[in-house]
Amino acid sequence: MRKMRIILKTLLSFFIVGAILLNVVNVNADTISDLEGQKGELEDKKKEAQAIVDKMDTERDNILAAIQELDAQVSELNTQINDLEEQKLELNDAIDVTEVQLENAIEKEEEQYDAMKLRIQYAYENGDDSYLDVVFTSSDISNMVNQDEYGEQIYKYDAMLLNQLIDIKQEISDTQDTLNDQLAQVQVIEDQLTEDRDAVEIMIEGKETQISNYNASIDGYNEQIAQYQAGMDDIDAQIAAIMEERRKQAEAAAVQGLDVPVYYTGGNFQWPVSSGGTITSTFGPRWGTVHQGLDIACPMGTPILAGESGTVIASYYSSSAGEYIVIDHGDGVATEYMHNSQRLVNVGDYVSRGQVIAYSGSTGYSTGPHCHFGVRINGVRVDPQPYL
Fewest CB atoms within 10 A around its CB: which of 93, 209, 256, 259? Predict the structure, then answer.
C-alpha cells in the first residue's frame, strides 16, 4: 500500500511538472511572439527615424558643400578687393606724384612768364614798343607766344621754353585726370565687389543657421533612435532570458524523467532555401549598422525550409522584417526567417527539419526576393554561416 502511494505521488509530481512545463512553454512562446512584435514596431520606428536622419544628413551635407562653394566665392571676392585696394594705393601714389609734378610745372611756367615780363619791361624802358603792343593785344600767354610780331622780337629760346612748359603742364594735368578717372572706376568696381561679398556672407550665415537647425533635429532623432535601440536591446534581453528559462525548465524536466525534446544537438542546419540561392549579404557591419543574419537571394515564391525540427514561437508580419517566423529548436537555439511572401505556420506549431514553412518574397524592408536566415543562441543573434 505504501509502495502504491509512493508510485502515485511520483506520477502526480510528474504530471504536475509536465503540466507546469507545458504551460510555461506555451506562455513563453506567446510571450516571445509578443516581444518580437513589440521589437518589430520599435525596429520600424527606428528605421523611419533613421531614414529621416539620413535624409537630413544628405541635405546638411549639401548645405555644407554649398557653404564651401560660397566660402570660395568670398575668398575670391576678397582677393579681388585686395587687388583693387592695391591698385587704389598705386593710383593714389601716382596722383600724388602728378600733383607735385603739376605744382612744379605751374611754378616753372610762372617763373618763365615772370622772366618774359622782365624782358618786356626792359624793352619798354628801352623804347621798344613792339613788346607792349603784343602784351596789350594778346588775350593769353599762348596767343601772345604765337603772334608773329612777338615771335620776331622774343628770343627763340624763350618761346620754345614757354611752349614746352605749357605742354608739360597740360600733359601732367591730363595724366592726373586720367588717374582720377581710373581711381573712380576702381572704386565703383570695389564697391560692387564688396556688396557682392557682403551678400554672399549673409547667405553663408543663413546656411550656417540651417546647419545648426539640422544638427539640432538630427540630435533629437538620434536620441529617439537610441531610445528605440535601447528598447530593442531590452526586448532581446527579455527573449534571451525567456529562452534561457525554457532551457533550464527543460533541464529540470529532464531531471524529473520527463521527455523534453531537444531538436538541435549540433551539426549543420538544413539550408533554408530549397533551390539553393545566392548569398548576397553576410552577418556583420552593413550600411552603418549590423546585419543580423544571412541574405540568400532566390526567385519569388521559392519554398523556405525549416533549418531543424522545433516549435514555432513567432509568426507575424512586420513592416521591417516582412512576413516573419522564428522556430525554437530547444536548448536555447532558435532560427528566424524574414521577408517571406507567405507564412505557412503559426505560433505553437511543431515543424520538422526541412519542412516548407514559407515562400520567399520581398516583404518589409527588402531590395528583392530573398530569405533572411538568422540564428539565435539564448536569444542573442549570431553569425549563421558556421551552422550551415
Answer: 259
Q: How many CA atoms lie within 13 A of 141 on its CB side?
A: 18
First to last CA, the chain: 55
| CATH number for domain 31-260, candidates 1.10.287, 1.25.40, 3.30.70, 1.20.1740 | 1.10.287
Q: Distance between CA atoms of 377 and 17, rounded to whole angstroms?
A: 25
270 exposed, middle or buried (CB, 10 Å; 0-12, 13-18, 19+)? Answer: middle
CA angle 7, 13, 17 (to 5 degrees): 150
Q: What is the pLDDT of residues 284-315, one digit of tens each?
A: 877 667 788 999 999 999 999 999 999 998 89
Alpha-carbon distance of 230 to 275, in angstroms, equals 38
pTM to 2 decimals? Answer: 0.53
Is the domain covering 278-387 a CATH 3.40.50.300 domain?
A: no
Distance CA 14, CA 19 (A): 8
Tell me the pLDDT tens digit for each residue of 307-356: 999 999 889 888 778 899 999 998 889 999 999 999 999 988 999 999 99
- 365-385: pLDDT as tens digits: 888 999 999 999 888 889 999
C-alpha cell at 1: 500500500
pLDDT of 155 higher than 80? no
Rounded Cα–Cα distance for residues 349 and 26 (Å): 11
- Residue-level length of the chain: 388
- Domain residues of the chain, as ranges? 31-260, 278-387
Contact 328, 343 (CB under 8 A): no
Dihedral angle, C-alpha 295, 299, 303, 304, nearest 10 °: 0
